[in-house]
Amino acid sequence: MLNTICDWSSPEDIAIEYHNSETIKKISYSELSDAKVKIEAVLAGAVKNHQFVGINCDVKAPSIPALILGILSQGSAFVNLPSTGVREISSRIGLSFAFSQSVLSGANSLCEVAVHGETVKLLELETIDGTNNIDKNEFAFAITTSGSTGIPKVVKVPHASIVPNILELKQILRLSKHDKIAQLTKLTFDPSIVETFLSLSSGSTLFMVSKEVINNPYKLLNLIFEHEVTFLQTTPSLWLYRWSEHQLGNTIFGRESKLKVLLLGGEPLPKIEMFRTVKHPINQTKIYNIYGITEVSCWASINEININHNEVETSPMINQYLGTPFSETIFQVRSEKGDIVCDGEGVLYIGSDTRVCAINNEDLKHLETPVFRKTGDLVEVKRNREFFYKGRCDRTVKRFGNRVDLTELEQTVSKLNFVKNCLVLWDEKQHALYLCISTTSLRAAGGKFTDELKVQEELNNELRKLPSFYQPNRIKLFNTFPLTINGKICTKSLMKTFETTEKGRVQNSQKANDSKLVKKILLQLWKNDLKSTIDSGFLDSGGNSVKAMQIANELSAASKIEFPELIGLLLKNETLANCMDYVLQKIQSSVQITSNVDNIVSSSSSYTQFAMNKKRKYDVIQPKKYSHPNLCLWQKCRGRVTGENDENYLLPSTNLNLNIRSQLIVECTQDLKKCVDASPTIFKYSSGEIYTSVGSHAGLILTKQLNSHDSITYEINLPDRIEASVLVLDEFKGIVGCYDGYVYCLNLKSGQIIWKYKTGDTVKCTAATSSNGKSVFVGSYDKYFYNISIEDGQEIWRFKCSEGSISATPCTCLRACSVLFGTLDGTCMSLNQTSGEIIWKFKFNDPIFSAPAMLENEDIVFCSVSGEMKCFNSETGQEKWNYKIDGNVFSHLVMRKNCFMNTEELIIGSTNKSVYCLSIQTLSSTPVLKYSVTFECPIFATPYCERDVLIVADTGGVLSFINAFNGQVVTSLKLGGNVFSSPVINGEFLVVGCRDNNMYVVRIVG
């Protein structure tokens, strides 16, 4: 029995060493024994003859071994309850009693007991179906499977099944009372039980940590290293993604490490080169691959991995070898017909006469031994003695009439040096093949980054070795893969990233012949997949045949139109402009299709016309002409530019050396009756007119033409204060939120209220347009986020995101069809634009007042008021990096493209009186501080950056004109009051609001 294999021979030795974020608690074997006896006594009366007793997930880690031992000693079996689905598992095993630190819903507290300084309650759960009363109990514990081998099952594990597993492992690994064994596995994952009883049966110390430490990988690694843990069990994914190679090489895989055993199980082993790269030549850690399934009580075989630094080549099958089966464990390979295979490939079954568990409602008495359980794994057996893992059984799919082995594709890609791990997903609905690649560091030995184009070329060359039907529809690079709570790669989350994108494409394709939308999609695909400017040719920008196929496929899927010549054009190194011409002509031809076959324009004639017009790219660019004068071409506000900017920049970069003589001169002011805290919007219409619009605390909205000597102005009065900026639409429509709780759609010239929508509280949030241009997104202080139709102001959907109000402007992501925003309780959220469903969310410790910033690859950066920044994959919510500045942040985040260095820069204003410029060297690395500029007063306003010019307004009312390249202040101007409004610039004009009730138009001279 589990409770009888514990070694109590040294009562004063430390049984448990528990670390939280601040303290260390040490519990001796004598103290553990006393606690076990106390638990046993508590259970003796109330829980006699009950088969299972639960342990709730809220019980602190150091109390759990005593509870387990007390339950077992009393004659019951234990079950570690998950954080969700407690009632389901309770009903399936007839659970009536559980230990918990809080009172669960529908439960009665019978008594309390002190366990190692913690008060634990014994609860009687509400009456449930099933029986738990028995005379004799043969089970040690119950657990649910992860579902990786099918639908999750409840597995009831007898002592006779788990005890041999632990005793044999203890012997193989040569564990003794001098060891320190880490217990880091989730308690609802059966390897955690192996960790606990390997330690107790050896008389060694069980190393446990709090949830806070588990969630801080760097601190956890340092504790493991500094406190000389000798045994560590984990999944390959946690080992790959929890810590970097550098961190491992300096700690548990370094020369000073005390780690004796690293046990990797639950997933296929990673490439052996990964260990050889990080492990110091004199490091003595032994690495084992352990294999098994929950249905046969955890582990079934083990193999030591020989890491030889002097060995040039390693057998390609070394990481696939499953090792030697444990005693009382039988490996059997069967063909599809059920015949036993002694030499060849088949499905692995694990069986035993004694290590037999009851699954769901099985009765052990009725099972004929040996009992075999199907693993769902395909293996190769050699001469009935050696077993090699080949992949999951469901990894062969039918594609284009051919059988595609997904494992073969994974193994092919994994050979590349820069690939840490890869996974292939098959989307049956879309009939699409997705390749997910997790990359190693791309730094070479000299510290420089390898050529990313060479990386793409290597991947392309490797994929060419496979048949065409193996070529993936889409390839995504990941810094880390999302993991389940058990530390395995979460395929559902990975698939969701692609499904979300596909869903967005379908929604974006509802207007198949909308050339404006297709242009936007192609532009976005070009920017996402290529590393150079849109003026360069496709191949010059880093394109290759794989990317050409992906762009063509994605554009066709989004538009429901085929573009047969597009791949050829891309591989002929055509520019985006030429590809766009072809796409638009193809769309035009599809519009002309009718039931009359004579009207169909063939693809060849379309291409011929395109080829004839190729010479146009050398012509002088003519000004764009628009049939309608009232189309909003672009708008600028709070560091963002949306729409088709026509290169009307502040100053050409060639004139940057003139900036030292530049001056800021007030051109004019406009009285808005009360404070102007709202940030102005500058926008341009197709007629060529450029305007600015801003609201004030008086409820007055003023719109002024900037490129007119007549100084034309229009005024609108709303009932209450305005702090939101105006979102500008076609036909001089403007959308703005007001303190009276309404979102208004107005004619900015006539003042006509086209529609208004009532929320439950103040609206400070500036609205954002949806990707399809048919609705707007806006948040309210009533804590709801709204999607409102532009046409009639009707609510499409609303969503209460959290307990925090919404102040900052949202950001839309076309590729994921999502809208992203933060709230004042620190929640950052990604919602599906069409349905309002949550795609992902994350919770900061502090409120979010800032709008997020989107990088060129559509990663999204959020910043809390405390100055904590995090970068996430906008589709998955996977965290890429984090950065902290020493000051509060209320201004929005601003992105700047450094064309000279081909990097991106993040600009942040802070109330600590500084503006920071962070350089983002690569898409996955933590930013580096390029410079910071300190001013006389705090900064609440969002800086504005265009080309190499940065404008900053501090609360003291000083406008500073700065060289964005080096942070040098060129000139400044003092306004007549405090400034919380964000400046915006275009051409020679700068516009900003002020608390002296005025909107200032400032001219930049020099």
Automatic annotation (TrEMBL):
PROSITE patterns: CARRIER, PHOSPHOPANTETHEINE. Keywords: Phosphopantetheine, Phosphoprotein. SMART domains: PQQ (SM00564). Pfam families: AMP-binding, Beta-prop_ACSF4. The keyword Phosphoprotein applies. Signal peptide: none annotated. It comes from the Eukaryota. Gene3D superfamilies: 3.30.300.30, N-terminal domain of ligase-like (3.40.50.12780), YVTN repeat-like/Quinoprotein amine dehydrogenase (2.130.10.10). SUPFAM superfamilies: Acetyl-CoA synthetase-like (SSF56801), ACP-like (SSF47336), Quinoprotein alcohol dehydrogenase-like (SSF50998). InterPro entries: ACP-like_sf, AMP-bd_C_sf, AMP-dep_synth/lig_dom, ANL_N_sf, Beta-ala_Activ/Resist, PP-bd_ACP, Ppantetheine_attach_site, PQQ_b-propeller_rpt. One of its GO terms (biological process) is amino acid activation for nonribosomal peptide biosynthetic process. Residues 509-587 form the Carrier domain. This is Beta-alanine-activating enzyme. It comes from Neodiprion lecontei. The lineage of its organism: Eukaryota, Metazoa, Ecdysozoa, Arthropoda, Hexapoda. The gene is LOC107219762.
